[in-house]
Design goal:
A: 213 residues, alpha/beta, 8 helices, globular, B: 468 residues, 5-stranded parallel sheet, 31% helix
């Protein structure tokens, strides 16, 4: 996993509540057995005028000029600003894979769905929850200011606006450490292999029916 | 100290805890399907890691599998590759049980687990699928995970977790005629909102829940995720124990007695405290239908499409307007005036034997309306299909003009050939009405199997209570 420490990036606004994972990456693209290559199909049904199929050359497809991420001013955006309950719906990790492949390293929202939120951390994407009033102010600023950038400072746990206003955010200490160091969860967990084995042995002795072969 | 069911399930699985409360939880059952596992198996191989405990794995192919012409195999090469990748991975790694495409016991992973007794009370159950909450019906700590976590569980038999808050939803009284667990689920989601359960584990309790069959409890827990909660569960009672007796992987003999004694402890203590409590009266719940593009956009069948002009919050109002535009509906239209094009009875929410019986009871001696282009009945698994056929339900569906299909996820997410065309309107017993969920441009209305059958007959949404 790539480390996440500090990011200064262009912000793209997606002004909707309840953006679901079916919208982030539609089901036909889940048939892939790869982890990468989902970026061109991120938000496929909103982004293109036709119905997308796996394996197409998306550069040739008609784009929806009204979809915000197609606007020239938001090309190259690395921070997605959105509203409440972002990432609701399915557990597909293809959603953060698609957002990362599209170029987003951080998502700033009023709230996130649990499974999506968790999946982001496994891929070096930082989901940041901010109060509704801060989100509303950010939307106003982004829309009024072409080239609007934010700084995300993970060690300081703050989002810093161009006017210098810093907005603190919360993050679990363990998740923060993992992101800052780009640690692989599995490697960390396997440090406790002896504990896992001991737990398992005890469980097998006490509840053998859980260990049917 | 008095404990909730969630506290008990959590505590009994903690292997290790970090200072910030992040815990390593032991995983008893790992359900695997073809869509979210290939990258996990590949990751394992690249890192040269072996699966920790093969006997925890129960696998099946369900999302990509066709529901007709099984003799012709899987025509879509991309779907076929994914299913063949699962075949190859399970062949090389092993599993407690594998129900591949065309196996007599193949089916939707959340139907297959419980019917085989592979889901037992007190277990932690995970799967790369958000509807894993279904298994909470058996007092399991069960939730969906992403593919990185699938790999983590394969490699370590554990998951890194933070403890959720707890919510008690108590439903007392008696559900009326024609009102089912699905109506209850939709009613609850409309009440709390699709983010209402975010950060919570929900326990469903009360006399109306106790009166539900295991099938009904699975429907309810299945939809917990649509209310934002990764987990929903119901305490163990006689209904749970009776359901599990004699299932292929259920314990037997002395182990059965020991297991049952333990299972009977799997309930919240009488004075346990919850972070949030919601009390509902079963008598207040009427058959429900969704009108929009989020599972919280729901009204009773005698209601109307809501009017965004009456919504004060501008972001919400815009969301309603967008939903109405996508759904091709006008504000204040009575739900019973809305005509449908297709009907889908199936999915991990509503494809079990009780669901098929409820739909068949409405369809018996009736026929789908002329404007209904396609009506699908898709059983949740091979055993469900054979049970339905033994009861003659397949003949009722076919005589009514339905197609009787092979088991699978089918038109719930339309990853296989079963899907809506742009603009088509579907009465669906599935769980999500998101834009494009059942096919690009398709319009999904969520309802119960009995209500879907009533809509099929009327050609528009209809109140099943007037038919029964």
């Amino acid at each position: 996993m790539e480390k996440f420490v500090r990011l200064e990036g262009l912000v793209a606004p997606l002004d909707r509540n309840n953006v679901d994972t079916d919208a982030i990456i539609p089901k036909q693209f889940l048939k892939s057995i790869q982890r990468s290559g989902f970026g061109p199909n991120a938000f496929d049904e909103w982004r293109y005028m036709d119905v997308g199929q796996p394996g197409q050359d998306c550069a040739q497809r008609p784009k929806n000029p009204n979809f915000v991420l197609n606007q020239p001013r938001y090309q190259g955006a690395e921070i997605l600003l959105t509203r409440a309950n972002f990432g609701c719906g399915s557990s597909r990790e293809h959603a953060p894979w698609a957002l990362l492949d599209f170029g987003f390293r951080a998502i700033v929202a009023e709230s996130f769905a649990d499974i999506f939120f968790n999946n982001c951390f496994k891929n070096g994407v930082l989901p940041i929850t901010l109060p509704a009033a801060e989100i509303a102010a950010l939307f106003q600023q982004v829309e009024a200011t072409p080239g609007y950038k934010l700084v995300v400072d993970l060690p300081a746990q703050a989002v810093i606006r161009p006017d210098g206003h810093g907005i603190p955010f919360a993050i679990d200490a363990f998740r923060k450490e993992c992101l800052l160091n780009g640690w692989d969860d599995i490697g960390l967990t396997l440090r406790h292999a002896d504990k896992i084995r001991a737990f398992e042995d005890k469980r097998r002795a006490e509840q053998p029916w859980l260990f049917a072969q | 100290m008095a404990q909730t069911l969630y506290d008990k399930l959590w505590q009994s699985h903690v292997v290790h805890q970090e200072d910030d409360g992040t815990a390593l939880l032991y995983i008893d059952r790992h359900l695997v399907h073809e869509v979210t596992s290939p990258q996990a198996f590949e990751g394992l191989k690249i890192a040269d890691r072996k699966p920790w405990r093969i006997s925890s794995i129960v696998a099946t192919a369900d999302h990509n599998t066709p529901t007709d012409h099984w003799d012709e195999g899987i025509k879509d090469p991309v779907s076929r590759q994914q299913v063949e990748t699962l075949d190859a991975n399970i062949r090389s790694v092993g599993a407690l049980a594998y129900f591949p495409f065309r196996d007599p016991k193949q089916g939707i992973v959340h139907v297959v687990g419980p019917e085989n007794g592979a889901t037992l009370p007190g277990m932690t159950v995970v799967c790369g699928d958000s509807h894993t909450s279904t298994h909470g019906a058996f007092a399991c700590l069960a939730h969906g995970i992403g593919t990185s976590e699938v790999e983590h569980v394969l490699a370590t038999q554990c998951l890194l977790q933070k403890k959720s808050k707890t919510m008690l939803i108590a439903v007392d009284g008696k559900l009326g005629k024609g009102v089912t667990a699905k109506d209850l689920a939709l009613f609850i989601i409309a009440a709390i909102g699709t983010a209402g359960g975010t950060g919570y584990a929900i326990e469903f309790a009360g006399s109306a829940i106790r009166a539900l069959s295991m099938e009904g409890r699975m429907t309810l827990c299945n939809m917990a995720i649509e209310g934002g909660a990764r987990m929903g569960f119901v305490a163990v009672d006689e209904t749970t124990i009776n359901y599990l007796k004699g299932r292929p992987f259920s314990p037997t003999g002395e182990n059965w007695d020991k297991a049952v004694a333990y299972w009977r402890t799997l309930h919240s203590d009488p004075d346990a405290r919850f972070d949030r409590t919601l009390s509902l009266r079963a008598e207040d719940i009427r058959p429900q239908v969704s009108w929009g593009t989020s599972p919280e956009m729901v009204v009773a069948i005698d209601g109307q499409v809501p009017d965004p002009a009456k919504e004060a919050n501008p972001v919400r109002r815009e969301g309603m307007e967008r939903a109405l535009h996508y759904m091709g509906l006008n504000p204040s239209t009575p739900m019973q005036k809305i005509a449908i094009d297709k009907v889908f009875i199936g999915s991990c929410t509503n494809s079990r034997i009780e669901d098929l019986r409820a739909a068949a009871a409405v369809l018996k001696g009736r026929h789908i309306a002329a404007n209904v282009k396609l009506a699908l009945a898709v059983p949740g698994s091979g055993p469900v299909k054979r049970q339905a056929e033994a009861e003659g339900l397949d003949k009722v569906f076919v005589a009514a003009g339905f197609e009787w299909r092979e088991p699978g996820c089918s038109m719930c997410l339309a990853i296989n050939a079963d899907r809506l065309e742009p603009g088509e309107r579907c009465a669906s017993t599935s769980n999500r009405n998101f834009e494009g969920r059942q096919g690009a441009g398709g319009r999904t209305h969520l309802l119960s199997p009995a209500m879907a059958a009533a809509a099929a007959v009327a050609g528009r949404f209809a109140d099943v209570r007037e038919i029964l």
